[in-house]
Amino acid sequence: MIAEEIHRITEALPDGVRLVAVSKFHPSDAIREAFAAGQRLFGESHAQEIQRKHAELADLATAATPLEWHFIGHLQTNKVKYIASYIELIHAVDSPHLLAEINKQALKAGRTIRCLLQLHVAEEETKFGFTPDEAMAYLDSGAWQQLSGIQLAGAMAMATNTDDTARIRHDFHRARQFFEQAHQRFFASDPTSAFNELSMGMSDDWHIAIDEGSTLIRIGTQIFGQRQY
Ligand SMILES: *Cc1c(COP(=O)(O)O)cnc(C)c1O
Q1: Residues with C-beta less than 6 Å from any ligand 1 atom
Q2: Domain layout of the chain by residue ranges
Q3: Centroid of ligand 1 to alpha carbon of 229 (angstroms)
Q4: N or C: which end of the chain has fewer CB within 10 A?
Q5: How much is the pLDDT for 37?
Q6: Is the pTM above the cut of 0.85?
């Protein structure tokens, strides 16, 4: 079942789009099963849970088959230190303050951590994420250029939780416009720029997200079923 869904999804992915298997609230054995089916990229959204699984699965990855952990949820500043030594990409960076802490912990760990700016484009009220205008103003400030422990790698967004596909497409489109404008203004002249990820799309809306330029889809329920705890 897990293997089947992974194959079904990955076969449908255009070039340049990667699947993040969202394993939150599923046991480490489910990750083992997905790994055996060829999945290498996993997303978690709670610091304690990813810590536990990272330890439980220490035997799983090898040099030839590395496992890549992404943090996709809201990350509290005081939790960054627990994941800084191994996290490959933090999707939901929602404040300059969090970015500064990631920078600090990355430098301490002797690493560069890739980060995405979380955009608020959905209809629902939330205290998390930059509006596209706020994110652009942050990039304009240039503050991020001083942070040598982080690499701004793109943007992440969630669409409105609705059945209205026009609304979902509209939300993803706004994220895409931000991403393309930001790339053009701040990163296009830098050949080494890694500002090339647009993380959008979940179990119910990933087809639309891919139409709108997503490079990372984050899928939990469709692969692993209903969350277990
Ligand atoms: C849980 C979660 C997902 C996966 O959602 P599904 O609907 O189970 O595919 C994707 N992105 C984020 C940020 C999440 O917290």
Answers
A1: 22, 24, 45, 72-73, 202-203, 218-222
A2: 2-224
A3: 15
A4: C
A5: 97
A6: yes
